[in-house]
Structures
1.
Amino acid sequence: MDPQAFIRLSIGSLGLRIPAAALNSVNSGIHAVSTPCTCEIRLRGFPVQTTSVPLVTSPEVIPDSHSTASSFYLEASDLNALLAPGCFYSTRACLEIAVFTGRKGSHCGVGIKRQQIGTFKLEVGPEWGEGRPVILFNGWIGIGKSKQESKRPGAELHLRVKLDPDPRYIFQFGDVTKLSPQIVLLQGSIKQPIFSCKFTQERAPQVDPLSTYWSGSAESSDLEMERRERKGWKVKIHDLSGSAVAAAFITTPFVPSTGCDWVARSNPGAWLIVRPDVYRPESWQPWGKLEAWRERGIRDSVCCRFRLLSEGQEGGEFLMSEIFINAEKGGEFFIDTDRQMRAAAASPIPSPQSSGDFAALGPAVGGFVMSCRVQGEGKSSKPLVQLAMRHVTCVEDAAIFMALAAAVDLSIEACRPFHRKIKRGSRNSL
């Protein structure tokens, strides 16, 4: 399998140092420093990322060299766009980090204005596209007005900007998951078959007998007889030789919760993601657990929570991802430690819709792992899966993520409301 080129641009080891002389200087523009300080990290063509910047009070202290505050993942087209001269841009694209003190927002109806301390800029150059690890900047640099308008020391920002090659495999389901499609590896315009997907439904669902009451006829094509539970779904991933190399199956049925007609957070449906047991032929070894439920709102969403199962005897579960996907339009499920840790840091107190327990996410896990883009309910979904090459040592490693992607895709349908579709005017005729 041949991967596609991606690079990871990481910004870390952040720290802000403001000498007392700068605080007392009129020219510096810095009147007071309040914590936390924040910065906005901008790269043309990508959403702005915001993160906190710790204050460094001692001149001997160096911020943690292994910490990562922000990451951007660039493919070849992104690099070409950044390096190409644009009609609407007079200068080259650059990485820009604007540092602020104070919070953005309001208090008691009065707007709170953030104070910008300074800006760091790093121009995009040819070395970005060379596909090799390179440290673009590492150390302290003066920012703000004092460095230019006076001889007094101004605010200083410490950071490390690094490029690392991070190639990915990109897979595409050839058709809707329930139609048992092939899974191909995309290499430009070439599609190379790698796996096949086999969907089965072991048990016939229980049909609501009252459905005939609403329709007036059991054979009416205008009404869909809604199922009272969705269970028995199973997906097997086979390699080119026909051997099953991964699977996903429903272990907790998707059923409407008490008092409503949808799968609620209080009683989510669940999938078990498994791989062959190397020590016991014809047996499966649990690898992960995917829970899914529906969140109601102005725009309904389906929450997919994935936990990695420990292989040890303690049988622990580690939360790796908790993603909300637009039920109508679809979206992206991903496992990305950088993005999850930033989200956890931005909301240290878990929201009612999140467990907030991302204890398994750490530097050792390593940034981007996988992503899966799926369509919304009622649409023809052919999942597109991206998988970091460094997490794949053999074909079986990729297969387990295909099983996870299939479970995410099928969860969109499994979390559809259970209400019946009433033929127009049928209510008034009763």
2.
Amino acid sequence: ITQLVTGHIALNKHLHHISKVVSPMCMKCNTNSPETVDHFLLRCPAYTNQRFPLFTQCTNQRRDISLHIILTNPENYSTLAGYVNATSRLKQTLGMI
């Protein structure tokens, strides 16, 4: 969770910043968007199906879905971990969380 909050996580925007990848862009979608935490959690169309339980959790709490709500409400952490695992995007660096 801390890495998602700080943005210091193995997504292309951060990896590009530390010279580990050539491009900061998301390689999973064709939106020409940098792969930021916001893009990964809220916007990337490649993960729409995996995102559904996370959005449902936040909606059930009668809250607007935002990066702040997802990352700061401990009630969301289990569902957030499920989303990260379902995407397999961070599996190589974080394993299953």
3.
Amino acid sequence: MSFRWGVLQRNAIFGMGLADHTKKTYMELQRKKVYRYVIFRIDEKKKEIVVEKTGNPAENYEDFTASLPESDCRYAVYDFDFVTSDKCQKSKIFFIAWSPSDSRIRSKMIYATSRERFRRELEGIHYEIQATDPTEMDMNVIKERAN
């Protein structure tokens, strides 16, 4: 019983654990370009971060933003492809902490305390955005950060 308490206490202090497929799915986006984006949610019952949705490479940024809930927190990674002024094809991976202002306070607290630990698990992130409304993560913000 004390072991289980130790695990729960550790998660409460350091954030949630990762489901087995969570990091694997991110690696498929990063290395194999299997996905355009991955949306993660916290499963409070299991005390872990799980994959909620993936977007295929043909999907665009509007598809991604439409997949985020309007009033609940999520983490997401988005693989942004662009062409530089030198006509060079580039790709940058964004980590987005989505915490809408009208989401539950408990949800905001759980996502905020787990964010840094989860972010460190995902190697190869180029930029991070914390957004409370869609204007803080619109395409202009993405383009500006990537250049």
4.
Amino acid sequence: MKAALYLHAILLFCGIFFGALGSFFGINIGTDVSNLPSAVDIVAILKAKQITHVRLFDANAHMLSALSNTGIEVMVAVTNEELLEIGKSPSAAAAWINKNIAAYVPTTNITALAVGSEVLTSAPNNALVLVPAMNYLYKALVASNLNYLVKVSTPHSMGVIPSPFPPSIATFNSSWNSTIFQILQFLKNTNSVYMLNAYPYNEYVKSNGIFPLEYALFEPLSSVKQIVDPNTLFHYNNMLDALVDAAYNSIADLNFSGIPIIVTETGWPWLGGANEPDASVDNAETYNNNLIKRVLNDSGPPSQPTIPITTYIYELFNEDKRPQSVSERNWGVLFTNGTAVYDLELSTGSLDANSSTVFCVAKPGADDRSLQNGLNWACGPGQANCTATQQGQPCYTPNTYQNHASYAYNDYYQKKRSSGGTCDFDGTATITSVDPSYGSCSFTGSLNSSTSGLFPPPAPGPTGPSSGSLMNFTHFDTIVALFAALLVLRVNINVL
């Protein structure tokens, strides 16, 4: 029983979704995208940019599989279309959890479940089943011993708070008070968080010039443009802080406290129509870079200074298939070919719109036997230095042919490119401008020649032998997952 209590405490500590380790920022990954990259390619971009938290708008099996063994924290979602069935059927909720969460944990690091998206304002017909759905899903997590690892909540738009300024007197739309009260009670009882979609861009446009643009962009305000709440005398240096405080005060108005707020969506469009002049590259670059600095200073808004503002940027790619305005289709920080829309500092990785550095990596989807042949050739006759991929070295994990071949191919290519070496390896390699470095594993890049473009002149590429011994792959991540599963099993035995 002691072991069970001990592991219970560990799970509780690890499962505190936004605990004492401070704030972080993640990124939303929408899918209304033409030519959406494969799940493997998307995850490669996330790893290259050292993005550690992502939010999905569904529970896509390809993405969840590709995210396995990466350590990236994942928020999955029940879609608004799925709500009706789940909110009426505990068995449907249990089936959803088993299929979309239990089947992937712990190798895929799922830490949160968003139930619907802006249900009260965008799908009000589903409002009556929202809280039942949250309860059924939570009980299914409890039954799977996953409730300490995966927190359940539901994202709200600012539309549920009709008058967010000044923040001190903000309240929820009274027509939703009963439902929101039940949601807050659920969040309090389950130690979860209030999820808020907050867009200073939208609030700035709606204000018709009442608020200065600098206020929305986190830019310094002159003495004559200071924003002060007349009731609390709190100074608001940016609009996002004010929106978050409006939500905190609305929660307090219903007599709840101690429920942290995370911003599940925020961002700025980089392109708009003729009547959307503030949707621009300069403003989007300014907003998101300043947002990241704001998040990483680890402080909260004026009313809750000790609760950091964790935030998910909206979004990774432009969702160009959306039918709305031009600006609605242009919030992405990347184009689908992996190039940056504008320079954006993401942690220690960065998105550089002008990058001309190229790398040679294994093609996603290449079969293991071909990759093994290419790897053997690169590390042997090709004279690539493959030491970093050996056990105990920085590029060993993930211990896959895809990862090890990428490192070996790139090392060969960077050394031999100037003397005619190519990035081909019997069709298993490709050139990319996305830096594949991750953690302490560093890939050397080379500057792209303005005369040769991304690809050097054709030359005989290295060809792997027709056969060769398999590498001795010890899947450390699998061992960790098995160990975790055994611990959970031991918990169950001890509890009985």
